[in-house]
Automatic annotation (TrEMBL):
<feature type="domain" description="Trehalase-like N-terminal">
    <location>
        <begin position="11"/>
        <end position="138"/>
    </location>
</feature>
<keyword id="KW-0378">Hydrolase</keyword>
<dbReference type="InterPro" id="IPR008928">
    <property type="entry name" value="6-hairpin_glycosidase_sf"/>
</dbReference>
<dbReference type="InterPro" id="IPR045582">
    <property type="entry name" value="Trehalase-like_N"/>
</dbReference>
<keyword id="KW-0119">Carbohydrate metabolism</keyword>
<dbReference type="GO" id="GO:0004555">
    <property type="term" value="F:alpha,alpha-trehalase activity"/>
</dbReference>
<dbReference type="Pfam" id="PF00723">
    <property type="entry name" value="Glyco_hydro_15"/>
</dbReference>
<dbReference type="InterPro" id="IPR012341">
    <property type="entry name" value="6hp_glycosidase-like_sf"/>
</dbReference>
<comment type="similarity">
    <text>Belongs to the glycosyl hydrolase 15 family.</text>
</comment>
<dbReference type="Pfam" id="PF19291">
    <property type="entry name" value="TREH_N"/>
</dbReference>
<feature type="domain" description="GH15-like">
    <location>
        <begin position="235"/>
        <end position="602"/>
    </location>
</feature>
<protein>
    <recommendedName>
        <fullName>Trehalase</fullName>
        <ecNumber>3.2.1.28</ecNumber>
    </recommendedName>
</protein>
<comment type="pathway">
    <text>Glycan degradation; trehalose degradation; D-glucose from alpha,alpha-trehalose: step 1/1.</text>
</comment>
<dbReference type="InterPro" id="IPR011613">
    <property type="entry name" value="GH15-like"/>
</dbReference>
<keyword id="KW-0326">Glycosidase</keyword>
<dbReference type="GO" id="GO:0005993">
    <property type="term" value="P:trehalose catabolic process"/>
</dbReference>
Amino acid sequence: MSDQSAGPPGDIENYALLSDLRTAALVGLDGSVDWLCLPRFDSPSCFSRLLGDDRNGHWQIAPAEPVREVHRRYRDNSLVVETYFETDGGVFRLVDSMPPHEKNQHDPPCLVRMVEGVSGEVDVRMRWVVRFAYGDAVPWMRHVRQSEPELDEYILAIAGPHTVVLRGDLLPQRVPERRAHELVFTLREGQRRSWVMQWSSDHEEIPPRMDPVQETQDSEDFWRDWTDKINYTGPHAKSVYRSLATLKALTYAPTGGIVAAPTTSLPEAFGGNRNWDYRYCWLRDATLVLLALDNFGCSAEAAAWRRWLVRAVAGDPADVQIMYGVDGERHLLEWELDWLDGYQGAQPVRVGNGAYRQQQLDVYGEVMDALHLARERGLAENADTWALQRGMLKHLETIWQQPDKGLWEVRGPDRHFTHSRVMVWVAFDRAVRAAEEDGLPGPVQRWRELRDAVHAEVLEKGWNQELGAFTQYYGGTTVDAATLLIPSVGFLPGDDERVRSTIRVVERELRHGVLVDRYTTGDDTNEVDGLTGREGSFLACSFWLVDALALSGRRDEAVSMFDELIELANDVGLFAEEYDVHSGRFTGNFPQAFSHLALVNSSAVLYGGHTRDESSRRNGRDPR
């Protein structure tokens, strides 16, 4: 097999996101769709080049001649991507989209690709390599031509339960020695060629033909209509709009759940083993999701997320997990795909996430805070949802003093993480506020006593006077960027000297320019997370520092830092989980909801949105 047929994936920052609100695809600057799971975000992939090479599945449309320049953009605020290829012979535009079927969720997922000649003429090559089951299953391919009930021609790819259909103006031909289909044609100015790839749950029920031009227009219209309701006029509006659209794109429309990222095993450190599957819904994101969506006019999505949240955690409070599947699935068993080389050699490639079994006490605070905010935003409580929260609080009373894995889901020993204890305080504080502000029934005096006891404990055991900071865990001597959230959740005011001092120590120990690490990692095994190697700076932590600076009275520094962080986005406004300061590259899963959530909420802190800890807005009261 030639080197050309075994090419590696591009840099993480070279990808753009497509989504139909059930699954997502990543398309690179080279015109190659390198990642696509069908029919859901967490389904097995049929294009897996992202975690290996060309032979693991991809769909590339690009010039068959040397490229002088490539540039791309999203059409307005939509998720329709235009990539312009310039060669010596001419220029053509590649238009990619996935039609979102938010209302008719039973429509088969599909990927629409079109090329349009802009000037001159260009020889274009299309290579279509389908590999089901994360690149492990080579499908049986058939070229079908039928005349009844109407003329229809397509390529059918089948492997076990997996089926896709490719239709187009020109269909590629089989290249047996590569187990691929290829096509080379000349595209002249004013010409258009298009293709549609559709998924089917049954190889005997072929999806009907679609008009690619109309579907592309419908996609653009959908996103334009959706973004028109966003209410934000502050600085960096384009970035805020793109972040909100990305959060919408990571939403699983049938349930309202939002995945942390559409990818798995993109490494937090190149060549390392910090590779995790993020195609699931974390409870920790709940508060930030509600804030980000509701702050800027996306109230329907906030309500849908609240419904997903309540549904997911329903049941015995002792069984509450930190994450769930997009449908609320509980078992996310972790296993390794040993046939994939991993992104640029990063092993292992993991599917599932064993952290779903971990005890992380902070999630109780996140859920209580999210549902408290939902009440403040006008989402009515009912007897069932309040009973659920009371059950969670009763269980928390019995376990809050136990050590846990913390919000970073460490694979080392359980510890008394300071952030976890702060969020336990949040849980009881929001319960007290529910009783005092909403008149909801419950043992409010006991909740007050527990809230005050947790608060006193954190101030005593989480604070290190010699270091001058809240530490990562009780008795520790190192800091954690999660302590930057202390003023955001209302545990202490931003101008408290302990908060200000903690910010200074975090800056000294974890900050690199405008970037902030989660905690200190090194080449040896880390005693906290149990893993080896360094990782990139966590982008959400960088935005948390923006918030902390603003809340502590250092607003000018916060604005300057926010401006610089915005510039780290890729060419279409997307952020990964982390940023490697040494190579200047994105690391971790991409695009990362947590990064975009943090960006949107920093814009609210700086430019007039509602912050996480503020007075009630019920009954028309607005403290701004």
